Amino acid sequence: MDFKLLSFLIFHYSITSSSIIASLPLPKQSLPTKSGYLSVNSTTNSAIFYTFYEARNPTAPLSQTPILIWLQGGPGCSSMLGNFYELGPWRVSSSHSHNAKHVTLTRNRESWNRIFGLLFLDNPIGVGFSIASTPEEIPRNQKDVAKHLYIAIKKFIKMNALFKNRAIYITGESYAGKYVPAIGYHVLKKNARLPVRSKVNLVGVVIGNGLTDPISQVATHAANAYYFGLVNDKQKRRLKSLQEKAISLAKNGNWSEATNARSEVLNTLQKMSGMPTLYNIRRHKPYQNYLVAEFLNDVEVKRALGVNETIVFEVCSKVVRKALHEDLMKSVKYMVEFLVKNTKVLLYEGQLDLRVGLVSTEAWVKRMKWEGIDKFLEADRKIWTVNGELAGYVQKWGNLSHVVVLNSGHLVPHDQPLNSQAMIEDWVLEKGLFANHHIENLSTSLSNVL
């Protein structure tokens, strides 16, 4: 992989529809340390595309520096959206000059690879630059999604001796509210049957604005929109009726129809409210994620990244979304319940997301089967500040942490880059509000007794 070439291309190559411009050389630490393909089926050559960025300023030897794995949602959206639009070391944006539009790559100082390694996986196969040999090989359920991800993660870890024992945190947003629990559950089940040297060192999972228990979550839209002041009581009743239809279909196992019914709820809500996007109710226009496609569809950029130049990059794949159509309304709550008993779990929501937001997550969290759930629900929601400014709220008990990120929507790292960086770093390092205070208090009490 010629990353010097990529550096040149990113900043000096012009294409007809846009120009990629900048005045400074690209810092070495912001280039992908590695990128390419991780085969998930040697017979068919289906493979997951990845980009990996090593920590810019690690606070420990690299062999002891955690690695964050990011999975995008959709279903069918590329993790290059997260990379180049949300939490990667460089982000695309647009500008206009001399009647021409420019796609500009600018440094993201609030990226998640400041002190951690950061791995983006285009999942499932068929998404982004990933390769599915046939549409039939694209996973139709979360167990098959997890099988491919597990193969890819194991192969990535084997690429470099420095990766072998590093702590792994699997993170993601939106439909990754299913992917993340699925691969986390699969890893822990596999680990239980493997010798220590062969285990994946999974330490925690992170779900942002996740669709995890769809039946519980679809039931919240009417009331949430009403209390946001977006619909009146009559409209609320109409939405509630549509919600009940989706719930009934799902409970009867009519999965495809239930997915369509959920879409009707959301489409109706958007029409009623007049919102340009439900992903962030303060935005006057949808997120500009198409800029990622404009950048990545340049032939020379593809060549430098080591991908097939004939692949037409799509931010979100309709083919993959169709493959997972019946999966959409199925729950993975039981996987989260297993994970919270065996590893750390962080849930976070942007306050302004009306599509898969705070109220919908709280609806299923309250129903979790976990011995610590009562204590978690009784825990205070504490005021969270970053650099002296109010950033949101943190509720924590034992292995479960829940964060409300103020003034952000569905794409939290895009809307609040500094605060999202502070959140992930403090949670991984168990600092500030994410410290295990009840354990510390217990230790203090024991010391006093002794």
Automatic annotation (TrEMBL):
One of its GO terms (cellular component) is extracellular region. Residues 1-18 form the signal peptide. SUPFAM superfamilies: alpha/beta-Hydrolases. Keywords: Carboxypeptidase, Glycoprotein, Hydrolase, Protease, Secreted, Signal. It is found in: Secreted. One of its GO terms (molecular function) is serine-type carboxypeptidase activity. GO terms for biological process: proteolysis. Its EC number is 3.4.16.-. InterPro entries: AB_hydrolase_fold, Peptidase_S10, Ser_caboxypep_his_AS, Ser_caboxypep_ser_AS. This is Carboxypeptidase. It comes from Capsicum annuum (Capsicum pepper).
